[in-house]
Amino acid sequence: MIVPETIHVHVPLPHILNSIFPVLVYRSALVSSAQETTTASVRKQFEPNGWHWQGTFKAYYGHHFHSVTHECYVVLKGSSVLSLGAKKGVGSVSGEDYHVVEVEVKAGDAIVLPAGVAHSSLTASPDYEYVGLYPNGSPPYDTNWCEAGVQETLQIGESARGVPVPISDPINGARGPLMSIWRAALS
């Protein structure tokens, strides 16, 4: 069983929700070698665990979050440094810099982003490519650009907080750690 790294990005900001659930990073999550890794091989590995494919993407530099579903990136090729939690170098809350976490992901890694957690690529190798997977039963992802007014962000937050804990870990299946880690965050 692959045990994920946990990254806490839980401080809500005026235009960004973030989440009480930690971001989970699974290093070397793919069972296939780099030469054999394709969108089809990732789907074959992850879809039996209750997460479905909604696209294969390149670096995405626009800071955004999803309010209706959790998201799992599985890196097919290359690497990227992701910004989690807030737009880097933008503003402050009570005199403190916004909580920004940078995490590097590379081919073979997977990262699970809870609904509401802002994210964006800061840098990426030219060949960076990832598969986007979402829990079965979730609606198609929405994209919120971290620019809505405070009241609208609060309303969107109600939706994000209502997204249920998935019934399966995308990497390890029904007995994986995602569910227990996220349920503990509710306590």
Topology:
Elements: E1 5-7, E2 23-26, H1 39-46, E3 51-57, E4 71-77, E5 79-84, E6 92-93, E7 96-97, E8 101-106, E9 110-113, E10 119-124, E11 129-135, H2 150-161, H3 178-186
Antiparallel strand pairs: 1-2, 2-9, 3-11, 4-9, 4-11, 5-8, 5-10, 6-7
* Helix proportion: 10-25%
Decide which structural class fits the backbone. Answer: alpha+beta
Q: Please, how many helices? A: 3
CA radius of gyration? 16 Å
Secondary-structure element pattern, one letter each: EEHEEEEEEEEEHH
Proportion of beta-strand residues: 25-35%
Main beta-sheet strand count, sense and barrel state? 6 strands, antiparallel
Placed side by side, the strands forming the largest sheet appear as 1-2-9-4-11-3
Mean of residue pLDDT values: 90
Q: Got a strand count?
A: 11
Per the principal axes of the C-alpha atoms, what is the gross shape? globular
Extract low-pLDDT stretches: 90-96
Distance between the termini: 24 Å
Keywords:
single chain; 187 residues; alpha+beta; three-stranded antiparallel sheet; globular
Q: What can you tell me about this protein's structure?
A:
Helices cover 16% and strands 29% of the residues. It has a six-stranded antiparallel sheet, covered by helices on one side. Strands 8-5-10 form a three-stranded antiparallel sheet, with no helix packed on it. A two-stranded antiparallel sheet has the order 6-7. The protein is built from three helices and eleven strands; from the N terminus they run E-E-H-E-E-E-E-E-E-E-E-E-H-H. The chain starts with a strand and ends with a helix. The chain has helices spanning 39-46, 150-161, 178-186, and strands spanning 5-7, 23-26, 51-57, 71-77, 79-84, 92-93, 96-97, 101-106, 110-113, 119-124, 129-135. It is of the alpha+beta class.
